[in-house]
Amino acid sequence: MTTTPDAKPRGTRLPRMARRRQLLSAAQEVFVENGYHAAAMDEIAERAGVSKPVLYQHFPGKQELYLALLDLHVDDMITRCRDALASTTDNKQRVQAAIGAFFDFVSGQGEAFRLVFESDLRNVAPVRQRIERNLRESAEMISQVIQEDTGCSSDEAHLLGVGLVGMAEVSARYWLSSNGSIPKDAATQLMARLAWRGISGFPRTG
Amino acid sequence: MTTTPDAKPRGTRLPRMARRRQLLSAAQEVFVENGYHAAAMDEIAERAGVSKPVLYQHFPGKQELYLALLDLHVDDMITRCRDALASTTDNKQRVQAAIGAFFDFVSGQGEAFRLVFESDLRNVAPVRQRIERNLRESAEMISQVIQEDTGCSSDEAHLLGVGLVGMAEVSARYWLSSNGSIPKDAATQLMARLAWRGISGFPRTG
DNA sequence: GGGTCATCCTACGCGCGGGTAACCAGGTCA
DNA sequence: TGACCTGGTTACCCGCGCGTAGGATGACCC
């Protein structure tokens, strides 16, 4: 069913770093399936084929474990976005690539995007901080391009950037959930067209 | 500080319906401030100036209380969106009004939008259901207009609708959090311009 | 005044789950 | 061969917070 590719014959000894990676992988499965609160440390340990204290030898607590995972994927998303914008200097293709980054992120690595886009635990400061960092930095990069291309003020460009990120994020999640009704390429191109028509040569007033 | 306008001199007896409304109001405060999980039934009761069993005479459990509140605000959001689209037949103004609906919703009634847009508890089926209903119905209404106006297929129009809703939602939340840097009217007009440029006369292919 | 009904209180049961104490096993090196 | 280090285990503690049992209090009617 939903078994990790990692072997787990409850009894194999692993070197520290290998075990750590495996624990992170198990934790990701459980957190993604159940969310933070419904996830039990017992289950994470069990899923890794190991007992609970082992978990606590690698991570001081549940929240820290979660944050480690969250950091990983926030960095991933930001990197994808940055790379997309750096992949070309043609702004139309930049839009296409950036939107594609969101669709790729959402369809990648075992639904890990849920940690970033659907986290319960937003009320805890360190988590909120990381999630907002994702939005802020992605939008910041985009708003840079917008400001160069149009005459918008910084505040306006930021708001537009945030709007575009929101569009990409929400549509990507929706596309994933309605699996199959539209192929990925078609979906990204559709959204890219919407975004590009909206943003290209954006008028200062109008 | 953050006290309800309702009086709460711990000892006043209230008729059933009045008490119920007051409990809902107290619960909203606490759920919005802390999220579902960090919210304690004890605190909700205390905030209402009443003891816990009273709460349980009105609602069978914590989750049902939360759902009652959630329903209220999901309905509110959907109604705002529907009214916005029905307020005119000019599609450009429709876009403006619909975006405005999101900004109004977000800035209204004590940050209650957090229940709909930032709920921890999405993993619980009845909650997820209601949150998705909001997205689905809002996007559905918009996609109707899109299909009439452009030659898009139903699937494409739905994806576009979801994207626009996401754009509105996320930008509205961002605008609220960066309080003051842009006036509300300017922000909605900015986003409406982005959306309208993107969607108006959307080409079947391109 | 006394029944009775609705409203509200104090005080407790209890399960769940994060975190820990104390102990075992096997490889390596002097 | 025995000290020792690394990696692992079982079994437990304990606090928090939802939900409830059982009792008080006051309004209203006869």
UniProtKB/TrEMBL annotation, chains A, B:
GO terms for molecular function: DNA-binding transcription factor activity; transcription cis-regulatory region binding. It holds the Pfam family TetR_N. The keyword Amino-acid biosynthesis does not apply. Keywords: DNA-binding, Transcription, Transcription regulation. Residues 40-59 bind DNA. GO terms for biological process: negative regulation of DNA-templated transcription. InterPro entries: Homeodomain-like_sf, HTH-type_TetR-like_transc_reg, HTH_TetR, Tet_transcr_reg_TetR-rel_C_sf. Residues 17-77 form the HTH tetR-type domain. PANTHER family: HTH-TYPE TRANSCRIPTIONAL REGULATOR RUTR, TRANSCRIPTIONAL REGULATORY PROTEIN (PROBABLY ASNC-FAMILY)-RELATED. This is TetR family transcriptional regulator.
